[in-house]
């Protein structure tokens, strides 16, 4: 039986085939990751733009379930702060999305200004996309302006200052982040090298949970090029 790597059973005429290099599937400015996102966007758009009554589209009333994104009456606007937090998101797309929303909630808990997160460029995909390549950055900042101060980059005066580097403990509650605030006593900027699973799922203040949902379902939207490509695919 032939060897799957290209070697033969006997004789000296066996050929050894070098592994084929994968083709570049996308040569446009939109990256491979953006292309995959566009496929997802196309499917979502088909579902969201179909002109059907809700009862036909969903088939039920959700058994009384509803979106929990509205702040309570006790929720206050963010206070002014000189603390800054930089983040490098890690993992795949969905892992980065949930991690970014956790970091938004953490920034609220520690009353820090969040710098637009960096996306993972070191994992399997080796994708070079930035936050604004994948997500609608102006919308992200605008939707969350009543929750957390978000900036595109550090102020010029802080670009070269020493930064504390902190790996937050996984699945931590609000009390842990009260202690973490001490980091900003000695540093104006704290860098978070990983964003995944840094916040507990349960036992958090209700407004923090709702902030996470608000970030995930209202603030994080695809960038215009991906939305437009999704529409083109959906209606071609």
Automatic annotation (TrEMBL):
<dbReference type="InterPro" id="IPR019378">
    <property type="entry name" value="GDP-Fuc_O-FucTrfase"/>
</dbReference>
<dbReference type="GO" id="GO:0016757">
    <property type="term" value="F:glycosyltransferase activity"/>
</dbReference>
<keyword id="KW-0325">Glycoprotein</keyword>
<dbReference type="GO" id="GO:0006004">
    <property type="term" value="P:fucose metabolic process"/>
</dbReference>
<protein>
    <recommendedName>
        <fullName>O-fucosyltransferase family protein</fullName>
    </recommendedName>
</protein>
<keyword id="KW-1133">Transmembrane helix</keyword>
<keyword id="KW-0472">Membrane</keyword>
<keyword id="KW-0328">Glycosyltransferase</keyword>
<dbReference type="GO" id="GO:0005634">
    <property type="term" value="C:nucleus"/>
</dbReference>
<comment type="pathway">
    <text>Glycan metabolism.</text>
</comment>
<keyword id="KW-0735">Signal-anchor</keyword>
<dbReference type="GO" id="GO:0016020">
    <property type="term" value="C:membrane"/>
</dbReference>
<keyword id="KW-0808">Transferase</keyword>
<dbReference type="GO" id="GO:0005737">
    <property type="term" value="C:cytoplasm"/>
</dbReference>
<comment type="similarity">
    <text>Belongs to the glycosyltransferase GT106 family.</text>
</comment>
<keyword id="KW-0812">Transmembrane</keyword>
<keyword id="KW-0119">Carbohydrate metabolism</keyword>
<dbReference type="Pfam" id="PF10250">
    <property type="entry name" value="O-FucT"/>
</dbReference>
<keyword id="KW-0294">Fucose metabolism</keyword>
